[in-house]
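User: I've been trying to design a sequence by hand for this structure and keep getting stuck. Would you show me what you'd pick, starting by listing the structure so we're on the same page?

Assistant: Good idea, let's start from the same input. This is the structure you sent:
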């Protein structure tokens, strides 16, 4: 009886919505046509998704955004963590400043960068100074730059997350090991490759997996910055799910997209876990 309230809460918030969406992913249900499902269509919604060019593009955008944002965030975060680990002057102040972007809500960050990306915004003003041309439509108005703008916003917000976690991992490594390697004549890059990174392997896999999943499901920044445009050039799976479910009211098709996302994320997580623990006993 003591766990009954928790069980009811769990069913109401997790299992019922999952069951509801799974059931209706096999139904022909569009609220613009009928207030109730029109019948069972089997895997029709799933097959239609993979025949839909917009869905395929949103899947490609989700993977592209996740890979490039996570890779850049990890690289920059590792660099910042290594610098802070070298006992720089004012390190505590820098750490406090690093945390600030991660405390900003993604919607707020999106609004901030939307103004910076305007044709007469600060970023559009500064880029030509570095030899980077800005499209006449603006950074967010051109398909070749809009997705990069979303990625840059995500990188600005979440690189500190990588830096702080990796810094904690670096500071957990025994200093005697590093000192012994340096006495033996090991260069910085040898220490990094043979000592630091191997000791950070588990931490690296965990934070990359977390951030990859978060970026794969990103919605709020895209909604604020581009609303999936121009055209469908920045539409991701999460935005496509929102658009089909709450704009087109195609509940059956949106439910199928949601379950495709769940399956893809489950495959990615399992791949990460298998790779991370390869040759190790759990």
């Amino acid at each position: 009886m003591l766990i009954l309230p928790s069980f009811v809460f769990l069913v109401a918030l997790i299992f019922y919505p999952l069951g509801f969406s799974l059931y209706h992913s096999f139904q022909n249900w569009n609220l613009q046509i009928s207030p109730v499902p029109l019948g069972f269509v089997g895997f029709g919604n799933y097959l239609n998704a993979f025949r839909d060019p917009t869905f395929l593009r949103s899947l490609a955008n989700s993977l592209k955004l996740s890979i490039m944002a996570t890779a850049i965030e990890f690289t920059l975060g590792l660099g910042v963590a290594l610098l802070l680990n070298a006992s720089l002057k004012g390190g505590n102040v820098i750490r406090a400043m690093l945390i600030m972007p991660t405390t900003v809500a993604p919607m707020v960050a999106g609004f901030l960068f939307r103004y910076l990306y305007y044709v007469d915004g600060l970023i559009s003003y500064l880029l030509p100074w570095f030899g980077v041309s800005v499209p006449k439509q603006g950074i967010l108005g051109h398909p070749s730059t809009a997705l990069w703008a979303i990625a840059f916003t995500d990188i600005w917000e979440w690189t500190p997350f990588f830096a702080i976690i990796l810094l904690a991992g670096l500071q957990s490594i025994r200093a005697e090991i590093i000192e012994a390697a340096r006495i033996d004549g090991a260069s910085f890059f040898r220490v990094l490759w043979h000592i630091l990174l191997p000791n950070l392997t588990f931490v690296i896999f965990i934070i990359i997996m977390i951030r990859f999943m978060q970026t794969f499901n990103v919605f709020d920044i895209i909604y604020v910055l581009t609303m999936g445009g121009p055209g469908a050039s920045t539409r991701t799976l999460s935005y496509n799910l929102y658009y089909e479910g709450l704009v087109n009211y195609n509940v059956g098709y949106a439910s199928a997209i949601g379950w495709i996302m769940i399956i893809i994320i489950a495959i990615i997580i399992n791949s990460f876990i298998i790779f991370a623990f390869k040759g190790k006993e759990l």
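That's my pick for every position. To get oriented when you compare it with your attempt: The chain has one domain: 24-276. The mean pLDDT is 88.
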